[in-house]
Amino acid sequence: MAQTSHKFTNATLHLLLAFTLVFAAAATFAVDQPTDLKSIYEGRHWFQLREAIANSKAPELYQGAVAAAFDQRDEAVAHLQRAIAAAPQSQEAVEARELLIHLFMRAAQYSKAVAAMKEQIAARIGKPATDGDRASIALLSQLPDMAVIARGASTLQYEMRGANLSVPISINDKPTNFVLDTDANMSALSESEVKRLGMSILNGPVAVVGVSGGTNPGGRMAVAQDFVIGNFHLKNVAFFIISDDQEPFVDFPAGKRGIIGMPVILALQTLRWRHDGKIEIGFASPKRDLSRANICFNNEDPITQVEFQHHKLEFVMDTGSEDSELWPPFAKEFSGLLNQVGKKDSTTLTGFEGSKDVQVVTLPELCFTLGGFNDVFRSAPVLAKPTVALSNWFYGRAGMDLLNRAQSATMDFHAMTLTLNEK
User: Based on the structure, what is the number of domains in the chain?
Assistant: First the structure.
């Protein structure tokens, strides 16, 4: 059996709190395309749910779930609060609060996330708060809400850090370059960077989960009071602290050991990078038409659609990962293809939490369409077993090896679209 190595630069950096989240705990395959709303919702088929409830009077929970998935925050809050008010102690109310918690965490609105967590605990009849609940709320209560003080379209020169984009930023008036990672639900940096940039440190019982599914507990967090990227000026950007001798920072140059996660990227709204080394941020977005959107969110994770053999498959969109991979739901739905041309193999997944050998079936090539761009995924590894929780639900991870094939890539988190172009 051959063994190959797929190195992921901090793919799937997730802050884990002891506070239990309903969707994070679920772990069942949902591959077959369901037809009823409940099955579509429970299977996290957000694009299909969008289409199923269009122009209909669907339950508030489903309307709120779709609005949250496509980052329509005001609409999501209104629908989900109505679902809670209708039956505050129902399972629907529990799920509505969980959706709100993720919505607020994604936007770095920690005070609102804490309020929703407290409300969730108060609604548990006969189930008082656990030590983990209290510890998580205590930590998040220390984090100030992130705020955008100024914004403006900007063009920056990026560096390639391996296969990843590293962009110039300033923290507390000190310049640095950090990697953009769309699948990091919080920004991260090394201990040496915390000291160099003069950031305040918070201790708390948090852990992060990496690309292999492994976790590191007992982490710390830091807050950048001033964060500048181009013409954007942000206040109170939260960072998870990772040791300098952990992946991915062990290979990063000193003074540049940091990752910009989804809350900051979402604040920029639009970004476009080209092969000439230029990246644009904050440019005008076309009028939103969510019926044509090919990006949505599953909690904090951005999901996009990959077209393969006349199927639209949901993939995690991950600029923090150098390599793409296919997951068990793909193996289940396309088992005939794997049996016909697949080759048993193993691969090493490397993330901040270390390395892990996993069993895969390698497909020689897949012809697919991503962001309107036709391409070929060669030597595609298909994981035999789930690693991260998302690999129970979605078909794979679209990393930079696929996202960077075209001459330009545009991510628009207002119109919720991914576009890859030849020019």
Answer: 3
The domain spanning residue 40 has which CATH number? 1.25.40
Write the pLDDT tens digit of every residue in 158-193: 999 888 999 999 999 999 999 999 999 999 999 999
Between the alpha carbon of residue 391 and those of residues 212, 219, 291, 378, 382, the distances in Å are 10, 24, 26, 20, 11
Domain that holds residue 106: 16-142
Residues 6+ apart with CB under 8 A from 170: 176, 226, 227, 228, 229
One domain for residues 119 and 182? no
Inform me whether the pLDDT recorded for 112 exceeds 60.
Answer: yes
Residue 242 belongs to a domain: yes
Q: Does 412 map to a domain? A: yes
Neighbour-count burial of 136, counting CB atoms closer than 10 A to its CB (0-12 exposed, 13-18 middle, 19+ buried): buried
- Whole-angstrom distance, CA of residue 423 vs CA of residue 420: 9
Same domain, 159 and 97: no
Residue 10 lies in a domain: no
**How far is Cα 214 from Cα 208, in angstroms, rounded to an integer?**
8
Task: Tell me the backbone φ, ψ of residue 185, rounded to 5 degrees.
Answer: -80, 0
Q: Distance between CA atoms of 64 and 53, rounded to whole angstroms?
A: 11
Q: How far apart are CA 370 and CA 396, in angstroms?
A: 13
pLDDT above 80: residue 132:
no
| Lowest-pLDDT range of 7-16, 50-59, 149-158 | 7-16
Report the pLDDT averaged over residues 193-213.
Answer: 73
Q: Which residues contact 21 (CB under 8 A, 6 or more apart)?
A: 98, 101, 102, 299
CA proximity to 102, closest of 286, 299, 315, 234: 299
For residue 200, how many C-alpha atoms fall within 13 Å in the half-sphere facing its CB?
11
Helices (H) and strands (E) in the chain, counts: 13, 24
Q: How many CB atoms lie within 10 A of CB 80?
A: 27
Same domain, 303 and 334: yes
CATH of the domain at 379: 2.40.70.10
